[in-house]
Amino acid sequence: MRTKAIIFVVLIAISASSSAQSDYSSYLNKALEKLEAGDCEAGRRFYNVYKELSGKSVLSVEELISDCSRSAGYKLGDIITVGDEKYTVVYIRDNGQHGYAVLDKGWIGMQWTDISKKSVPTLQEMKQIYSNRDAVRMYDIYWTCTQDETSRYSTNYTYMDFSTGITKSAYYSNENEAKVILIHRF
After folding, report:
1. How far apart are CA 122 and CA 143, in angstroms?
2. I need a surface site. Which of 16, 47, 103, 136 has the fewest CB within 10 A?
């Protein structure tokens, strides 16, 4: 019922739009048609074409795409688009309804104060991601946002070596070998 109401609102917005935009509305209509039929991937593709050509996004359609994908459940290695960024699913539970996805670009050389505002995994989350490292081909050393409470320095953080599974603690520094990865929790 919610889906049909959103589709109705979107169609009204389309019909009220300018003729220049209506050239692209067929892609949006096709996306809505595919989403209504439960074809999440095709709906996402048509919507992405619409966004690319029109330069606009429709929040209600993005919500439909998110809901559609979520109801189908994610698999390891699936790509999730969050805003303009792409994430790769690296850990799932509840038949793919929940888990973590890693941002497809690494974050190296950022100040810890910058990255702590973003979603850096905890040590526990990193251990769950580590269990699937072969499926998603992650073998580097990665920082967590978990501080080492046994250290006398409050700026020591734990990192994990995905080639060995060993965790260590060190002062976070841009010069260290470990990478910072950002995750999306779903």
Report:
1. 9
2. 16
Mean pLDDT of 99-122: 66
**22 neighbors 14 (Cβ within 8 angstroms):** yes
List, for residues 141-178, the tens digit of each pLDDT value: 888 888 877 766 567 888 999 999 999 988 776 666 77
Distance of CA 20 to CAs 15, 27, 28, 46, Å?
12, 13, 14, 18
Convert 16-83 into a string of H (helix), E (strand) and C (coil).
CCCHHHHHHHHHHHHHHHHHHCCCHHHHHHHHHHHHHHHCCCCHHHHHHHHHHHHHHCCCCCCEEEEC
Q: How far is Cα 129 from Cα 7, in angstroms, rounded to an integer?
A: 37
